[in-house]
C-alpha cells in the first residue's frame, strides 16, 4: 500500500511540475519578447489581453491549430519522433531538480550525473530532425548542432566537477546544503564562467544559436517543421534553459537558500535567482551578434577546455592543502 | 532479486544477435553497430556478476568495456569515412583489394 | 516487481536489437541501437549499478551513438539502402548461431550459482554506488584505468589521422 | 575609425553642370589620350568625338581587332591608367551598316578622367572579350549577350544572366516587339531540364 | 525565373567528384540574400568551394521602358531602381539629362538636391546597417536603425509627399520648393542623429564577437577592387580615396566640406567603418546645406518639351551603393534613343565570387551584407 501511495504522490508531483513548467515556459517566451522589445525601443506584444498578457495562450492555440506539414521526401517515422526526442529529455530532467527544500519529485544520489546524461540526449532529436527533413539547410544545421552540443557538453561536464569536489556529492540537495555558508560561485568563479558559456551553447541560445541561425540556415534543423512539432522544439529550448539555470543555481548560487537575514521561503529564492538567470539569457540575446561556427569551436577547445582543466587541478590542489 | 541466470541468458542472446549481425550484414556501419551490441552483451554479464557477488569489479570492467567501445567506434568510423571518401562504398565485401 | 521490469527491459532489448540488425537504413539501425541502450541502462539500474547506467546513457547514447549518426550523415548512405543487404551466407550463420546458442544454454544449465550476496548499501542511498565504484576504480584498478586513458589517446590520434583529408608534412 | 581621411580638396572646385565652355572648338578634348593610343597603335583610333566638347565625353571608335590591345594599353599606360571599367554596354542601330555599337566606359582614378571606347560590329559578329583585362566585364558582357545577343569570343562563362536561360530572343534590340506575344517566345522548362 | 543551366553547371561538377560536395541554394527566398537573389553555393563541409549567382528575378526592362517614354516620364521609374535610396536615383537621372543642356540650375535647388541626396544616403546606409547586423545576429541594431530610417522617410514625406518612391526632382530643378517644416524637421533630425550613430557603435564597433565576425573576412585589395569594378564604400574600404562627389562634383557638392572616409584592409569591418563615417559626414553635409541654403527660385526656365540635341552622354553620381550612372543617347526627339543604367549593385555583386570562395557559409552572409546590394537596381 505504501508503494501505491508513493506512486500516487509522485504522479501528482509530476503532473504539477509538468504543467507549471509548460505554463512558465510559455510566459518566459512572453517575457523574452517583452524584454527584447524594450531593448529595441518598441512595445512588443500588446494586443491580446492587457499588455499582451494572453499572447502565449494565443500563440499556443495558433500552433495547435496550424496545419502539420510533413515534407514529401522526409523520413516520416524519424521526422515525427524527432520533436519528441527533443522534448522528452528536456522534461525528464525535471524529475531530479530541487525547487525548494521540500518540493522535488525525487532525489537520487547521482542527480547531477543523471541531468548530464539525460540532457545529452537532446542532441539526438536535433540530429534526427535534421536528417529526417531531407533538406540541406536542416542537415547543415543538424551537423553544426551535433558538433556544438557534443563539444560543449564536455566543457559543461568538466565545469561542474569543481563544485562537485567541494560538495563531495552528486546529490543536488547535498550540494545545496554544502553552500549554506558561502556560495560556490565565490570559490569557483572560473568554473562558473565556463559553465555559463557552455550552458548558453548547450541550449543553443545567442550568441551560440548557430544551429538555428535564421540568417544563414533559414532555421537550421527545424526548417521543415510546423505546427505542434515546431512548438515542441520551442518548448524544449526554453525547458532546457530552465534546467541549465536551475543547475547553475544549485551548483553555484546556493539553490533555494538565501541569506539568513532576509526571511523568504526557499521557493521564492529559487524563483528570484531563476529570474535573474533568465533575464541574463534574454539580455545577451538582445545584445550580441552571433559567433561563427569555427570560432565557436576555437573558443571552446582552445580557451575554455584548458581553463576548466586548470580549474579542476587547482580545486583539487587547494582542497588537498586546506581541507 | 533477479536470478543470475537471467543476466547470463540475456547476455548470451544479445551476443548472438550481435554476432549474427556481424556475420550476415554487408553494410560496414551496421557491422560496427553489431559489435557495439556484442560489447554491451558482455557488459550485461559483468554487471550481473557484480550484482550477484556484490563486488564492484564487474562494474569497473564494464566501464573499461565502454572505453574500448569508444575507441573502437572512433577508429572504426574514421576508417569508414576514409574509405567512403576514397571510393563511395559502405559494404565490407567490396573492400577486397588485399584479397588474393 | 524487479523481475517484471527485468523482463520488460530485456524483451525490449532483444526486439530492438533484432530490428537493428535487419534494417536497411543505417540511421534507423543506429537509432534502434540507442533504444537498446536505454533498456540496457534500465537493466543496470535494476542491478544496482546506477552510476554505470548514467555512464551508459551519457557516453554510449549521448556520445558514441551521436558520433555514429554524425559520421553516417557525412557519408553517402542513400546508395547503400538500395543495394543488397545480406551476405549470401545466412544459412551457415544461422546454424552456427543456433549451435553457439545451444552451447551457451547447455553450459548455463549445468552451473549452480552460489546464493547471491547483498550490497552493503541500499539502492539509491548515499553514499552508495558511486563512492564504492570510485574507491575501487582509483585504488585497485588505477593502473588499468591509466592504460585505458592511453588507449583513448591513441584511438583519438588514430581517428584524426585516418579521417583527416590531407596531412601537411 | 578609418585610419586615413582625405581633406576636402579645392582643386576640383567648379560650378556644377558648367562643363567645358566652347573655347577650344577646334581641337576636341582627349588629344593627349589619342596620342597615348596612337604612339603604340598608329591608326587605331578610327574616329574621335566628344559631346559639346565635354572632357568626360571623349569617345574613341576602335576597330574590333585592335580593341583588346588598345584597352590593355590604356589600362597599363602611365598617362591613362584606366583601371576601372565603369560600364560596358551596347546600343542597337538597325539602319546602320554596322548595327551594333559596343560601348566601354573607362575611368581612371589616378587622373580622374573618363574615356568612352566604341566598337561597331555587324549582326552576328563576335567581339573579343575584355574580361581578361577587367574582370568586371564578365557579368556586363553576359548582360549584353543576354539583352542584345552579341557573342563574346573567349568569354569564360557566357550564359544569360538576367533573363531565363531558354528565353528565345534579345529584348534590348530595337526590333523587339513592344506589344503582343513577341516577348513570350519562351518555352516552359520541362521537369527533366530542371533536373527534377 | 528558372535558371536551368545555372544549376546544372555546378551540379554536374559535383557529381564527378568522388567526395560529397554539398550544393545549397541560398535564395531566392532566403532571409539574408536581401531580396530575390539566388546564390548557388558549392560547399565542402562549411567552406565555400564555388559560387554562382542567379539574378534577374526582378528584371523589369527598365532600360527598354526608358527608351519609349519621355525624359520627364522616366523620373518615377528611376525611383524603382534603388528603392532604398530613391532620391539619389532621381538625382542621377536629372543631372544626366541636364548635361545635354546648359541650363542654370538655381542654387537653392542644387542645395536641396544635395541635402535630399544625403538624406537618402542616410536612409540607405541605415537599412544596410540594420540588415547587415541582423545577418550577423545582432538583432537590436536592426530595430534601432529602422527607428531613424523612419524619421528620414517622414522627412521625405514632408517634402515630396512620398516615402519610399518619392519622385523628388524635376529636370531643371525641383517641382516645388520644400516647405519650411521640412527644413525645421531636418534640423531636428540631424541634431539627434549623431548620438544615435554613437548608439549603434556602442553595440557593434568594439564588440568582440562583431570584430571576430568582420575582421579579416571578405578581404579585397584595392587593385582587385578596381579590377572587379567595385565602387562606393567597398573600394573606399579597400583604401582608395575616391568619391564622385569629390572627383566629379555635381549639385551643390563643390561648395560643401566633407571628408571621404577610407579603410585600410578592405575587410568587412573596414566597409562597416567607412559607411558609419559616411553617416556622420552626411549629417555634416546636411548641416552645411541648411546653413548655406540660399533663397530664390527652385527651378530654371525649361522648354515645354524636353528635346536634347543629338548626342550621347554618360553621367554618374555617388549613390549610397556606389557609382550610379546613366548613359543616354539622344536622337533629338522627346524620347531617348538608348538609356543605359550603370548599376552599382549589379557590378558589385559580380565581385561576390571573388570575395566568398574559400570562406565559410556564415561569412557569405556577412559578405553579401557588406556589399550592400539592392536587387531592384541589380536586375533593373
Q: What is the CA-based Rg of chain C, rounded?
A: 21 Å
| Secondary structure tally: strands of chain D | 8
User: Unreliable segments of chain C (pLDDT under 50, ≥5 consecutive)?
Assistant: none
Secondary-structure element string of chain D: EHEEHEEEEHEH
Structural class of chain D: alpha/beta
Query: What is the radius of gyration of chain D computed over CA atoms, rounded to a whole number of angstroms?
Result: 20 Å
Q: Strand portion of chain C, in percent?
A: under 5%
The spatial strand order of the largest sheet of chain D comes to 2-3-6-5-4
Q: Look at the structure and give the mean pLDDT of chain C.
A: 79
Overall geometric form of chain D = globular
- How many alpha or pi helices of chain D? 4
User: What share of the residues of chain C lie within helices?
Assistant: over 70%
Number of strands of chain C: 0
Q: Structural class, judged by helices and strands of chain C?
A: mainly alpha
What is the multimeric organization of the chains shown?
heteropentamer
Biggest β-sheet of chain D: count, sense, barrel? 5 strands, mixed
Mean pLDDT of chain D: 75
H/E series of chain C: HHHHHHH
Largest sheet of chain C: none
Would you kindly provide a written description of the structure presented here, covering whatever features stand out?
The complex is a heteropentamer of chains A (323), B (100), C (169), D (196) and E (380). With 100 residues, chain B is mainly α. Chain B has a domain at 28-88. Chain B contains three helices and no strands. Chain B has helices spanning 4-24, 28-53, 57-86. In chain B, helix 1 (4-24) runs antiparallel to helix 2. The radius of gyration of chain B is 17 Å and the shape is elongated. Chain C is 73% helix and 0% strand. Chain C has helices at 2-22, 26-46, 50-74, 78-81, 90-110, 129-137, 142-163. Chain C is globular. Chain D has four helices and eight strands; from the N terminus they run E-H-E-E-H-E-E-E-E-H-E-H. Mean pLDDT of chain D is 75; it is low at 1-25. With 196 residues, chain D is an alpha/beta fold. Chain D is globular. In chain D, 18% of the residues lie in helices and 22% in strands. In chain D, the strands form two sheets. Chain D has a five-stranded mixed sheet. Chain E is of the alpha+beta class and 380 residues long. Chain E contains 16 helices and nine strands. In chain E, a hairpin with a 5-residue loop joins strand 8 (322-330) and strand 9 (336-342). The two termini of chain E are 14 Å apart. Classes of the chains: A mainly alpha (323), B mainly alpha (100), C mainly alpha (169), D alpha/beta (196), E alpha+beta (380). Chains in contact: A-C, A-E, B-C, B-E, D-E. At the B-C interface, helix 1, helix 2 and helix 3 of B face helix 1, helix 2, helix 3, helix 5 and helix 6 of C. Strand 1 (4-6) of chain D pairs antiparallel with strand 6 (260-262) of chain E, so a sheet runs across the interface.
Amino acid at each position: 500500500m505504501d508503494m501505491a501511495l508513493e506512486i500516487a504522490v509522485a504522479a501528482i508531483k509530476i503532473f504539477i511540475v509538468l504543467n507549471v513548467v509548460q505554463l512558465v515556459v510559455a510566459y518566459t517566451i512572453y517575457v523574452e519578447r517583452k524584454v527584447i522589445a524594450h531593448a529595441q525601443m518598441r512595445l512588443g506584444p500588446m494586443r491580446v489581453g492587457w499588455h499582451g498578457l494572453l499572447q502565449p495562450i494565443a500563440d499556443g492555440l495558433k500552433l495547435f491549430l496550424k496545419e502539420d506539414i510533413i515534407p514529401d521526401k522526409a523520413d516520416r517515422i524519424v521526422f515525427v519522433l524527432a520533436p519528441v526526442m527533443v522534448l522528452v529529455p528536456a522534461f525528464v530532467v525535471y524529475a531530479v531538480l530541487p525547487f525548494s527544500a521540500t518540493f522535488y519529485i525525487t532525489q537520487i544520489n547521482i542527480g547531477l550525473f543523471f541531468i548530464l546524461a539525460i540532457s545529452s540526449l537532446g542532441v539526438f532529436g536535433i540530429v534526427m530532425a535534421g536528417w529526417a527533413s531531407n533538406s540541406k539547410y536542416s542537415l547543415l544545421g543538424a551537423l553544426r548542432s551535433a558538433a556544438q552540443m557534443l563539444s560543449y557538453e564536455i566543457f559543461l561536464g568538466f565545469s561542474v566537477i569543481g563544485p562537485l569536489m567541494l560538495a563531495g556529492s552528486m546529490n543536488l540537495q547535498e550540494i545545496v546544503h554544502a553552500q549554506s555558508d558561502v556560495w560556490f560561485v565565490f570559490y569557483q568563479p572560473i568554473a562558473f564562467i565556463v559553465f555559463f558559456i557552455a550552458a548558453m551553447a548547450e541550449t543553443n541560445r545567442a550568441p551560440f544559436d548557430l544551429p538555428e541561425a535564421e540568417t544563414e540556415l533559414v532555421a537550421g534543423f527545424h526548417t521543415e517543421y510546423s505546427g505542434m512539432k515546431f512548438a515542441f522544439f520551442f518548448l524544449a529550448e526554453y525547458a532546457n534553459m530552465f534546467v541549465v539555470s536551475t543547475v547553475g543555481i544549485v551548483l553555484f548560487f546556493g539553490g533555494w537558500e538565501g541569506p539568513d537575514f532576509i526571511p523568504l521561503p526557499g521557493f521564492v529564492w529559487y524563483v528570484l535567482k531563476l529570474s535573474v538567470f533568465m533575464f541574463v539569457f534574454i539580455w545577451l540575446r538582445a545584445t550580441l551578434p552571433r559567433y561563427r561556427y569555427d570560432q565557436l569551436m576555437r573558443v571552446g577547445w582552445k580557451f575554455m577546455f584548458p581553463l576548466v582543466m586548470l580549474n579542476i587541478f587547482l580545486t583539487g590542489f587547494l582542497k588537498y592543502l586546506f581541507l | 532479486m533477479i536470478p543470475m541466470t537471467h543476466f547470463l541468458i540475456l547476455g548470451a542472446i544479445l551476443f548472438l544477435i550481435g554476432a549474427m549481425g556481424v556475420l550476415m550484414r554487408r553494410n560496414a556501419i551496421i557491422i560496427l553497430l553489431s559489435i557495439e551490441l556484442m560489447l554491451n552483451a558482455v557488459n550485461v554479464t559483468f554487471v550481473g556478476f557484480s550484482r550477484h557477488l556484490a563486488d564492484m569489479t564487474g562494474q569497473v570492467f564494464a566501464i573499461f568495456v565502454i572505453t574500448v567501445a569508444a575507441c573502437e567506434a572512433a577508429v572504426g568510423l574514421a576508417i569508414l569515412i576514409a574509405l567512403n571518401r576514397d571510393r563511395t562504398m559502405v559494404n565490407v565485401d567490396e573492400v577486397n583489394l588485399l584479397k588474393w | 516487481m524487479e523481475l517484471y521490469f527485468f523482463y520488460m527491459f530485456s524483451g525490449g532489448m532483444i526486439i530492438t536489437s533484432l530490428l537493428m540488425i535487419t534494417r536497411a537504413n543505417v540511421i534507423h539501425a543506429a537509432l534502434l541501437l540507442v533504444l537498446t541502450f536505454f533498456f540496457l541502462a534500465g537493466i543496470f539500474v535494476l542491478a544496482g549499478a546506477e552510476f554505470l547506467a548514467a555512464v551508459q546513457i551519457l557516453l554510449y547514447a549521448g556520445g558514441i551513438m551521436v558520433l555514429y549518426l554524425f559520421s553516417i550523415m557525412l557519408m553517402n548512405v542513400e546508395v547503400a539502402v538500395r543495394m543488397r543487404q545480406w551476405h549470401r551466407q545466412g544459412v551457415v550463420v544461422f546454424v552456427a548461431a543456433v549451435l553457439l546458442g545451444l552451447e551457451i544454454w547447455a553450459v548455463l544449465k549445468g552451473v549452480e550459482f552460489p546464493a547471491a550476496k547483498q550490497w552493503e548499501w541500499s539502492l539509491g542511498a548515499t553514499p552508495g554506488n558511486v563512492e564504492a565504484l570510485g574507491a575501487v576504480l582509483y585504488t585497485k584498478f588505477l593502473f588499468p584505468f591509466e592504460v585505458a586513458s592511453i588507449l583513448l589517446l591513441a584511438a583519438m590520434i588514430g581517428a584524426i589521422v585516418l579521417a583527416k583529408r590531407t596531412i601537411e608534412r | 575609425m578609418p585610419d586615413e581621411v582625405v581633406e576636402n580638396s579645392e582643386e576640383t572646385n567648379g560650378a556644377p553642370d558648367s562643363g567645358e565652355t566652347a573655347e577650344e572648338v577646334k581641337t576636341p578634348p582627349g588629344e593627349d589620350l589619342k596620342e597615348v593610343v596612337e604612339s603604340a597603335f598608329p591608326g587605331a583610333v578610327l574616329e574621335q568625338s566628344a559631346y559639346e566638347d565635354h572632357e568626360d565625353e571623349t569617345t574613341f571608335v576602335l576597330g574590333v581587332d585592335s580593341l583588346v590591345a588598345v584597352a590593355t594599353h590604356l589600362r597599363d599606360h602611365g598617362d591613362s591608367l584606366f583601371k576601372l571599367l565603369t560600364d560596358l554596354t551596347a546600343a542597337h542601330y538597325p539602319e546602320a551598316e554596322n548595327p551594333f555599337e559596343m560601348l566601354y566606359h573607362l575611368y581612371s582614378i589616378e587622373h580622374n578622367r573618363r574615356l568612352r571606347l566604341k566598337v561597331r560590329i555587324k549582326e552576328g559578329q563576335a567581339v573579343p572579350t575584355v574580361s581578361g583585362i577587367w574582370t568586371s566585364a564578365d557579368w556586363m558582357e553576359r548582360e549584353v549577350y543576354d539583352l542584345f545577343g552579341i557573342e563574346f569570343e573567349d568569354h569564360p562563362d557566357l550564359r544569360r544572366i538576367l533573363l531565363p536561360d531558354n528565353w528565345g530572343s534579345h529584348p534590348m534590340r530595337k526590333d523587339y516587339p513592344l506589344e503582343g506575344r513577341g516577348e513570350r517566345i519562351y518555352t516552359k522548362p520541362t521537369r527533366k531540364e530542371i533536373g527534377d | 525565373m528558372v535558371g536551368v543551366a545555372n544549376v546544372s553547371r555546378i551540379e554536374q561538377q559535383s557529381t564527378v567528384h568522388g567526395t560529397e560536395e554539398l550544393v545549397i541554394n541560398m535564395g531566392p527566398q532566403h532571409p539574408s540574400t536581401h531580396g530575390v537573389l539566388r546564390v548557388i553555393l558549392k560547399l565542402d563541409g562549411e567552406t565555400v568551394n564555388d559560387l554562382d549567382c542567379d539574378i534577374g528575378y526582378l528584371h523589369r526592362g527598365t532600360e527598354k521602358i526608358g527608351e519609349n517614354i519621355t525624359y520627364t516620364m522616366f523620373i518615377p521609374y528611376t525611383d524603382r531602381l534603388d528603392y532604398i535610396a530613391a532620391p539619389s536615383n532621381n538625382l542621377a537621372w536629372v543631372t544626366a539629362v541636364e548635361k545635354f543642356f546648359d541650363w542654370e540650375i538655381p542654387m537653392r535647388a542644387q542645395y536641396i538636391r544635395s541635402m535630399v541626396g544625403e538624406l537618402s544616403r542616410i536612409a540607405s546606409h541605415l537599412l544596410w546597417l540594420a540588415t547587415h547586423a541582423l545577418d550577423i545576429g545582432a538583432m537590436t541594431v536592426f530595430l534601432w536603425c529602422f527607428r531613424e530610417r523612419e524619421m528620414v522617410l517622414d522627412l521625405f514625406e514632408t517634402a515630396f509627399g512620398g516615402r519610399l518612391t518619392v519622385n523628388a526632382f524635376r529636370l531643371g530643378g525641383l517641382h516645388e520648393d520644400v516647405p519650411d517644416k521640412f527644413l525645421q524637421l531636418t534640423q531636428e533630425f540631424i541634431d539627434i542623429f549623431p548620438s544615435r550613430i554613437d548608439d549603434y557603435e556602442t553595440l557593434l564597433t568594439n564588440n568582440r564577437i562583431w570584430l571576430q565576425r568582420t575582421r579579416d573576412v571578405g578581404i579585397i585589395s584595392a587593385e582587385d577592387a578596381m579590377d572587379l569594378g567595385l565602387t562606393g564604400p567597398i573600394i573606399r574600404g579597400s583604401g582608395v580615396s575616391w568619391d564622385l562627389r569629390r572627383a566629379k562634383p555635381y549639385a551643390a557638392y563643390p561648395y560643401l566640406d566633407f571628408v571621404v572616409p577610407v579603410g585600410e584592409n578592405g575587410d568587412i569591418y573596414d566597409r562597416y567603418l567607412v559607411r558609419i563615417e559616411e553617416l556622420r559626414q552626411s549629417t555634416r553635409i546636411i548641416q552645411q546645406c541648411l546653413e548655406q541654403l540660399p533663397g530664390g527660385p527652385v527651378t530654371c526656365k525649361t522648354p515645354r518639351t524636353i528635346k536634347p540635341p543629338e548626342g550621347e552622354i554618360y553621367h554618374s553620381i555617388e549613390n549610397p551603393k556606389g557609382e550610379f550612372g546613366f548613359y543616354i543617347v539622344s536622337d533629338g526627339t522627346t524620347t531617348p534613343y538608348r538609356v543605359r543604367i550603370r548599376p552599382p549593385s549589379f557590378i558589385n555583386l559580380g565581385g561576390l565570387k571573388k570575395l566568398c570562395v574559400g570562406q565559410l557559409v556564415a561569412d557569405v552572409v556577412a559578405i553579401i551584407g557588406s556589399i550592400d546590394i539592392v536587387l531592384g537596381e541589380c536586375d533593373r
